[in-house]
């Protein structure tokens, strides 16, 4: 069976003045993710070092939603980069802690996060994917880098809009706009203008396309 491994890494965490506070809040945020998506984990998010954490997921469509929730929890404070790997696990899996399991899923996730550290497109790219299917990886890669480029250009109000969508677990480009506009206390025209200028719909389309490709790959056997 194929699994999706996620490795997250806080960039330059040792240079952060409030490192201990961020580490404690990271622990709390990961616990919230673990609770919200409990059925989607083979092994939940676990902090492996002070600035690094990982999880092992069953194939599911919420990988990027989880990642965005984590990144948004630390917006304007620290950057968090992610490597996602697809593959098998060769050892026993601990359903309570993501420590000790090993296999291609984690190897590919490590390749992905090493890649993003070396090829981050002037700091805009925060996520990479790797699998044994390199031809498809080359299709997924630009979907992720282009969506990260879109996100890097958002101002505060556009990020607020995205965060509101994420809080409602909206992660597709087609959604009912009126209740979101009302929640943000925006007129329909102001909401539409902000949505259009942000490129959020294109961001979500690219992420969903990448997610669909990853799920298709997860069904392949060897």
Q: How does this model look, in words?
A:
Keywords: DNA-binding. The chain is built from eight helices and five strands, in the order E-H-E-E-H-E-H-E-H-H-H-H-H. It has helices at 19-36, 63-73, 104-118, 134-152, 156-167, 177-183, 188-198, 200-218, and strands at residues 3-10, 41-49, 52-57, 80-87, 127-130. The chain has a five-stranded mixed β-sheet with strand order 2-3-1-4-5. The longest helix has 19 residues, at 134-152.
| Count of β-strands | 5
Lateral arrangement of strands in the main beta sheet: 2-3-1-4-5
Q: Could you give me the name of the CATH homologous superfamily? A: Reverse transcriptase/Diguanylate cyclase domain
- As a percent range, the share of strand residues is 15-25%
Query: What integer value in Å does the Rg equal?
Result: 17 Å
Q: What would you say the CATH architecture is? A: 2-Layer Sandwich
Top CATH class: Alpha Beta
Quick recap of the structure?
This protein has about 220 residues and is of the alpha+beta class. The protein has a single domain, classed as Alpha-Beta Plaits (2-Layer Sandwich), CATH 3.30.70.270.
């Amino acid at each position: 069976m194929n699994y999706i491994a996620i490795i997250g890494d806080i960039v330059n965490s040792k240079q952060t003045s409030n490192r201990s506070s961020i580490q404690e809040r990271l622990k709390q945020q990961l616990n919230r993710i673990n609770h919200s998506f409990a059925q989607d984990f083979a092994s939940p998010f676990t902090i492996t070092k002070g600035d690094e954490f990982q999880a092992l997921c069953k194939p599911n469509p919420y990988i990027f939603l989880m990642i965005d929730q984590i990144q948004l929890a630390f917006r304007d404070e620290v950057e968090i980069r992610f490597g996602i790997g697809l593959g098998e696990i060769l050892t026993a899996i601990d359903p309570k802690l993501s420590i000790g399991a090993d296999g291609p899923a984690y190897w590919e996730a490590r390749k992905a996060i090493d890649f993003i550290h070396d090829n981050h497109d002037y700091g805009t790219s925060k996520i990479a994917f790797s699998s044994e299917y390199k031809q498809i990886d080359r299709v997924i890669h630009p979907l992720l880098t282009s969506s990260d480029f879109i996100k890097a250009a958002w101002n505060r109000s556009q990020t607020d809009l995205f965060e509101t969508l994420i809080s409602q677990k909206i992660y597709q480009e087609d959604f009912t706009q009126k209740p979101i506009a009302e929640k943000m206390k925006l007129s329909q025209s102001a909401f539409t203008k902000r949505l259009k200028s942000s490129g959020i719909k294109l961001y979500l389309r690219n992420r969903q396309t990448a997610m669909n490709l990853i799920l298709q790959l997860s069904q392949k056997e060897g």
